[in-house]
Design brief:
Radius of gyration: 24 Å
GO cellular component, one term: side of membrane
Number of helices: 14
GO molecular function: glucan endo-1,3-beta-D-glucosidase activity
Bound molecules: 2-acetamido-2-deoxy-beta-D-glucopyranose
Membrane topology: Lipid-anchor; GPI-anchor
Distance between the termini: 38 Å
Pfam families: Glyco_hydro_17, X8
InterPro entries: GH, Glyco_hydro_17, Glyco_hydro_17_plant, POMP_repeat, X8
Structural class: alpha/beta
Low-confidence stretches: 1-27, 461-490
Strand content: 5-15%
Mean pLDDT: 89
Helix content: 25-40%
Number of strands: 15
Largest sheet: 9 strands, parallel
Length: 490
C-alpha cells in the first residue's frame, strides 16, 4: 500500500439512511492478498486451507514463490502471481529473461502443478511518488516482454497481464470524481500502459485505501471513509457516500476521458489495519471490511459503473517483517493475526459459518514469556540500549500512542520489547539475557487489549536460520557485542 489522495475530504456531511443491503450470493467472488514478509510465516499448506475454509475464490501473491504455488495446485483457487519491482529492469531489458520467468514461474505451475494462474502482476505500485520515479522506464517494457513470453508459452487466452498501481497515479483537479485524470508527470506513460492493457485484454489494477485518507488528514470526515453513508458529495447528480466509490470513479473518469472507459478494473488491495495508529483498530477495521463485503455480496458497483466489483482484500495475515516506512500500521493489515487467528467477526458471505475460520493445527512454542525482572531498576543505564536493540529486530509497533499496547507503564513497555525479541528468536534462552534486566516467566503479562505473543513453531529449516525465519536469528555473542558497544558509547 501507499498513499491515497485525499481530495474528497471536504464533502458535505449530511445524514442519509443509505445502507439497506440484503446479503445475496456472491456474484464475482472475493479475493485476498497473501503476503509472506513475516519472520514466522504459516506453512503454505495451512494458508491454502485457510483460503478454502474461508471461501476465498482468488488469491493475489507478491511474487511467484514456488512453495506457495505448489500448495495452491488443484485447490480450485484462481491466482495472480507477482513480479517484484526489483526484477523489472532485468525483465525490461531482455525478452529471454521474461521467457525464462514465465516458463519457470507460470508455465510449469499451470501445466505440472495444476495451479489456476489467471494474472501476472508486473511490478507493485511502481509509480508511487515515494519511489522517486525509479521504475518509470522499466515497467512498460517489462510488461511488454512478459506479455510476449505469455503468448510464446501458449497461455495468452488464460493468463492476462496487469500492473497493480497505487491510486496516486490519478487525481482530480476539482476534488470531484468527474475531475479525474492521470497524474500530469506520468500522463503519457499511463496512456501507453492503458492502451497496452486494453489491446491485450488485461485489467487496470488499482489499490485504494480510505484508511490513508483518514491517516494523513485529521479533518477527513470519518463517516466518508466507511460505507455507512453519513457523509456524501454530489458530483453532477451522482451521489457519493464513501471515498472508495469516489476514488474508484475518479479512475473511471480518467480512463473515460482518454478513450478507455470500458477497461475492466480490479481492486488489487483494499482493507483496514488494526494496530499501530489511533485510527487502526479492530472496530474500524471490522466496520470497513464488513461494509465493503456487504457491497460485494450485493453485487453493487459504484455510481459510474454498476455491477459487481472484482476485488482482493488486503490482507490475509499480519506480516511482522514488513517495512514500517509507511507507518506503524503497516504490519497489521491482516484479517488474521500472524498465527492465523481471526481478529474480529467478519461475514464474508462465502461460507455457512458467517464468520472467519481460523488456521488449523497451528503449533505454538511453550507458554512462556521474557519480561523485565522485578529486581531490575528503571534507572539501570542498560535499559534504554536494551529496549532499542530489541525493538530494532522485534515488532514494537503496538507500543505507540493509540495502539493496542499504548497504555502500558514503563516496565510493561520494556517487557513487551524483551518478549517480542525473545519470541522472534524462537524462545532461545540467550535471547532473554538482557544484562541483569530480564527473566523468563510462565505468567502471561498480557493486559486488556495488549497481547504479549507466543511465537508459532516453524519448520526446523527456518529455525536453523536457513529459511524465512533466518532474519530473526541473532546469536547471543552478537547481542553481547552490541551491548558492550552501546555501553562504551554511552
Ligand atoms: C521466479 O520467481 C521467483 C520468485 O519471485 C524468483 O525468485 C525467480 O527468480 C523467478 N524465476 C526466474 C527465472 O526469473
Ligand atoms: C527517494 O528520495 C528520497 C530523498 O532524496 C530518499 O530519502 C529516498 O530513500 C528515496 N527513495 C527511493 C526508493 O529511492
Ligand atoms: C459518521 O460516522 C463516523 C464514523 O462511524 C462517526 O465518527 C461520526 O460521528 C458520524 N457523523 C455523523 C454526523 O453522524
Ligand atoms: C463500451 O461497452 C459498451 C457495451 O458493451 C458498448 O456499447 C460501447 O460501444 C463500448 N465503448 C467503447 C468506447 O468501446
Ligand atoms: C512505551 O514505548 C513507546 C514506544 O517506544 C513510547 O512511545 C512510550 O512513551 C513508552 N511509554 C512509557 C510509559 O514508557
Ligand atoms: C549484573 O549485576 C551484577 C551484580 O549486581 C554485576 O556485578 C554485573 O556487572 C552486572 N552485569 C552486567 C552485564 O551489567
Amino acid at each position: 500500500m501507499g498513499l491515497t489522495m485525499d481530495v474528497f475530504s471536504r464533502g458535505h456531511v449530511v445524514a442519509l439512511c443509505w445502507l439497506c443491503v440484503e446479503l445475496v450470493a456472491l456474484v464475482n467472488g472475493i479475493g485476498v492478498n497473501w503476503g509472506t514478509q513475516a519472520t514466522h510465516p504459516l506453512p503454505a499448506s495451512t494458508v491454502v486451507r485457510m483460503l478454502k475454509d474461508n471461501g476465498f475464490q482468488k488469491v493475489k501473491l507478491f511474487d511467484a514463490d514456488s512453495s506457495s504455488l505448489k500448495a495452491l495446485g488443484n485447490s480450485g483457487i484462481q491466482v495472480m502471481v507477482g513480479i517484484p519491482n526489483d526484477m523489472l529492469a532485468t525483465l525490461a531489458s531482455s525478452v529471454e529473461a521474461a521467457e525464462k520467468w514465465v516458463s519457470q514461474n507460470v508455465s510449469t505451475h499451470v501445466s505440472s502443478n495444476g495451479v489456476d494462474i489467471r494474472y501476472v502482476a508486473v511490478g507493485n505500485e511502481p509509480f508511487l511518488t515515494t519511489l522517486n520515479g525509479s521504475f518509470l522506464g522499466t515497467t512498460l517494457p517489462a510488461l511488454q516482454n512478459i506479455q510476449s513470453a505469455i503468448i510464446k508459452a501458449g497461455l495468452s487466452t488464460r493468463v492476462k497481464v496487469t500492473v497493480p498501481l497505487n491510486a496516486d497515479v490519478y487525481s482530480s483537479s476539482t476534488s470531484l470524481p468527474s475531475g479525474g485524470d492521470f497524474r500530469p508527470d506520468i500522463h503519457d506513460l499511463m496512456l501507453s500502459i492503458v492502451k497496452f492493457l486494453s489491446d491485450n485484454g488485461g485489467p487496470f489494477t488499482v489499490n485504494i485505501y480510505p484508511f490513508i485518507s483518514l491517516y494523513i488528514d485529521p479533518n477527513f470526515p470519518a463517516g466518508y471513509a466507511f460505507f455507512d453513508g453519513n457523509s456524501s458529495i454530489n458530483d453532477g447528480g451522482a451521489i457519493y457516500t464513501n471515498v472508495f466509490d469516489a476514488n474508484h470513479d475518479t479512475l473511471l473518469w480518467a480512463l473515460q476521458k482518454n478513450g478507455y472507459g470500458n477497461l475492466s478494473i480490479i481492486v488489487g488491495e483494499i482493507g483496514w489495519p488494526t494496530d499501530g495508529d489511533k485510527n487502526a483498530n479492530l472496530n474500524y477495521a471490522q466496520q470497513f471490511n464488513q461494509g465493503f463485503m456487504n457491497k460485494i455480496a450485493a453485487g453493487k458497483g459504484t455510481p459510474l459503473r454498476a455491477g459487481p466489483l472484482d476485488a482482493f482484500l488486503f490482507s490475509l495475515i499480519d506480516e511482522d517483517a514488513k517495512s514500517i516506512a509507511p507507518g506503524n500500521f503497516e504490519r497489521h493489515w491482516g484479517l488474521f493475526y500472524f498465527d492465523g487467528q481471526p481478529k474480529y467477526a467478519l461475514n464474508l458471505g462465502t461460507s455457512s459459518s458467517n464468520s472467519l475460520v481460523a488456521a488449523r493445527n497451528v503449533r505454538y512454542l511453550a507458554q512462556q514469556w521474557c519480561v523485565m525482572s522485578s529486581s531490575a531498576s528503571l534507572d539501570d543505564p542498560q535499559v534504554a540500549p536494551s529496549v532499542s536493540y530489541a525493538c530494532s529486530f522485534a515488532d514494537c509497533t503496538c507500543l505507540g500512542y493509540g495502539s493496542s499496547c499504548g497504555n502500558l507503564d514503563a516496565r510493561g513497555n520494556i517487557s513487551y520489547a524483551f518478549n517480542d525479541y525473545y519470541q522472534q528468536n524462537n524462545q532461545l534462552q540467550s535471547a532473554c539475557q538482557f544484562p541483569n534486566l530480564s527473566v523468563i516467566t510462565n505468567n502471561d503479562p498480557s493486559t486488556g487489549t495488549c497481547k504479549y505473543r507466543i511465537m508459532i513453531q516453524t519448520d526446523t529449516k527456518s529455525a536453523l536460520g536457513l529459511g524465512a525465519g533466518a532474519v530473526s536469528f541473532r546469536p547471543l555473542t552478537r547481542v553481547l557485542f552490541i551491548f558492550m558497544f552501546l555501553a562504551t558509547a554511552l
